[in-house]
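Deliverable D4.2, example record:
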Amino acid sequence: MSSLEEALRSKLSELLGSKLAEALEKYGELVLEDVEIEVDELELVLHPGAIVPALKPPVEVRPLKLIETKFEKPKMEWTGRVVEVKLGATKSEGGTRDRVHIVGGETVPAFYMFAEPMPHPPVVAMDVFDMKIRLPKAIKVHFEDVMDDPAEWAKRCVEKFGAEMINLHLISTDPYIKDTPPSEAAKTVEEVLQAVKVPLCVGGSGDPVKDVEVFKKVADVAEGERIVINSLNLDMKLDDIGPHLKDKDCVVIAFTPMDLDKARELNRKLYDYLPKERIMMDTNIAGIGYGIEYGFTVMERARLAALMGDKELQHPIVAGVTNAWAAREAWIKMDPYWGPKEIRGPIWEAITGLVALLAGADYFMMMHPFSIKTLKEIIDYLSK
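Output generated by the structure prediction step:
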């Protein structure tokens, strides 16, 4: 073999060894497939230094403690303040209630406890109807024996389930249901006022004409109790009901359907008759799966606008959380994957309430005892 052949052979061996070493280092192993080598004699010499041992995985170092850091409060400037509204009147105030509730007064968003403490905790009230209505079984099981008597229904809510307030809905006054006259509806209000001593909220049927007459009578018989009228809206003759309520010691809920422009418009019109301290606002909240994201967005926008100085929106917010039961999924029988309806329904209502709570709601209308208990526990936990 000539010296040239030896040099070429040496160079080829060196190059091949180098390439094999690089491949082994990169991939850990080599597999030759479909390779044909035609030689008289093949000798592979792998020097020990050319074989790269498999790399050991890095040792995982687990942290022994949390990283310490300093909490710095976000820099925020809120120039507005939600007005405070008093619900109910005790004997010393001219009423007969055993307690009063104050809602509103916020100067920061809901539960910004790192900035300022909450001036007043939200109030959770229980719904009562002036006639027997169809209710999901999960709710009806708690009230079925008193649903024909709104006074006894209210007592059940207060004495057994610890209701802070009662929302009495006079749905029988609806012209298309029973068309109960205003005088009879007012008598029902009197009976409930005598049966329980917590503050009272009185709702109508939703008929804009009939409700005006009903609310006039209700305000007359409940004079001095500082009840809440639920609710006034833009479809009503505000120039009729407004002057009547002006000299009555009551609070009103201004209801508008998820529209802040209409909310401002309604509040402006009510200012002609009522001071701001007697107005709460309901921007409407839907249940889970039925538009809750829209309700949350409008409610949150209203509160943030109020804190940024929008005087027409600086009112406590009402949330009709019972609307959660309008979702069929809250009460119908479904695949076992979704859980039993007896539990699913109350959770549906409780989570709807939680959504409204985080958006800034001050006053809650609810029905199921478990849902109410859950929301109260959440409020208590977040407040601390």
